Amino acid sequence: MGKRIVAGCPWGIRKVIMKHALRLVLLVFVSCCAVLGQRSVELNQCMDKAAAQGELNECAAAEAQRADLALNETFQRLLVAAKSDGTATKKIKEADRAWITYRDAYLDARFPAKDKQREYGTKYPTEYALFRAKLTYRQIETLKDLLDQYATH
């Protein structure tokens, strides 16, 4: 029967093993995020440097903020492209408000527990922010479709 590697190690070695294990878990998590299309260069760099969960939370929050800024920029470009059609502009704004409601409801459904930190643990802020960014990046693509439509008019 094999020895337990971590339990019998001095604290320094155990700390190194745990750090590498955390990085491996993060690599898998970030790789999954990349497949979902939400991985930015900035997120990669931040996650590579992160050594603790709090730092990962900060990386994910920054990614969600970048996604929000990109969404707002795309939305403003869409409004400019559609400005000659008052009805379209009104409908685009209504759709935007509906999407925000949908996004928030979807996030609540994804993480339904009242005490989220207790239920999902310290990784909750990271998962929440990255999933919010994922939804936001999807919405940017949707707005780009509309932008293409109004840019040709």
Write a short abstract of this structure.
The protein is mostly helical. It has helices at 11-35, 41-49, 53-81, 86-110, 116-120, 124-151. 79% of the residues lie in helices and 0% in strands.
Could you explain the architecture of this structure?
- The protein is mainly alpha-helical.
- It is built from six helices and no strands.
- Helix 2 runs antiparallel to helix 3 and helix 3 runs parallel beside helix 6.
- The longest helix has 29 residues.
- The chain is elongated and about 70 Å long.
- The termini are far apart.
- About 5% of the residues have low confidence.
Please name the defining characteristics of this protein:
single chain, 153 residues, mainly alpha
List how many beta strands DSSP finds. Answer: 0
Average pLDDT taken over every residue: 85
> Count the helices. How many?
6
Radius of gyration: 20 Å
Strand content: under 5%
Helicity level:
over 70%
Sheet of most strands: none
Order of helices and strands: HHHHHH
| N- to C-terminal distance | 72 Å
Overall structural class, as computed from helix and strand content, comes to mainly alpha
Oligomer: single chain
Uncertain residue segments? 30-36
- Overall form: elongated
Q: Topology, pairings included?
A:
Layout: H1 11-35, H2 41-49, H3 53-81, H4 86-110, H5 116-120, H6 124-151
